[in-house]
Specification:
Layout (H helix, E strand, L loop, with lengths): L8 E3 L5 E3 L10 H9 L14 H10 L6 H5 L5 H4 L4 H4 L3 H18 L7 H20 L8 H16 L3
Antiparallel strand pairs: 1-2
Helix pairs in contact: 1-8, 2-7, 2-8
Length: 165
């Protein structure tokens, strides 16, 4: 396996090095994305109990028509590599937004979807954010999956969606 041991690269769960400033689709693996999102908590961890980004992505993909399911499942995939930044902060950090966009372009190329998120997926993402805020932050009336379980489900969902490609 080729490595990019530089001060610009991060090492993923699989041991792969990713230059996040110039990401190559060849270095991106669905297993790393699934792992990173399964262990990343929504709302920067400001929840009553753990609720993963991967679980959020699975729910979004479940609500989409078939042609948008892959994009919905991977709409937050860049967060597996660089985390997330709250929108009120991100709008003042154009370099972070550019980095996120470059990663999403590489991820879209690798997995075959448009990194320009469809308006339907955006609307579901926004409504999901409101639902999660109510049910995972203000209250804790919905049990979230454990990271290893949601990781396995994320990978299974990816296989189900992509088996027809």
């Amino acid at each position: 396996m080729e490595t990019l041991e530089t001060n610009r690269a991060i090492r993923t769960f699989s041991g792969e090095y990713i230059d996040v400033f110039d990401p190559s689709p060849a270095h991106l693996h669905i297993e790393d994305i699934a792992h990173g999102l399964a262990y990343r908590c929504r709302f920067g961890g400001h929840t009553k109990t753990f609720h993963s980004v991967a679980e959020h992505c699975i729910h979004i993909s479940d609500m989409c028509p078939p042609h948008l399911r892959l994009q919905a499942l991977l709409h937050d995939a860049s967060e597996a590599y660089i985390g997330d930044m709250p929108t009120p902060i991100k709008q003042f950090l154009p370099d972070f937004q550019a980095l996120e966009n470059r990663l999403m372009e590489a991820i879209g190329l690798k997995f075959g979807f448009s990194p320009r998120i469809d308006s339907f997926v955006k609307a579901l993402d926004k409504s999901s954010l409101e639902w999660e805020w109510e049910n995972k932050v203000l209250n804790d009336n919905v049990k979230s999956m454990e990271p290893e379980r949601v990781k396995a489900l994320f990978l299974m969902r990816f296989q189900q969606i992509t088996k027809h490609f």
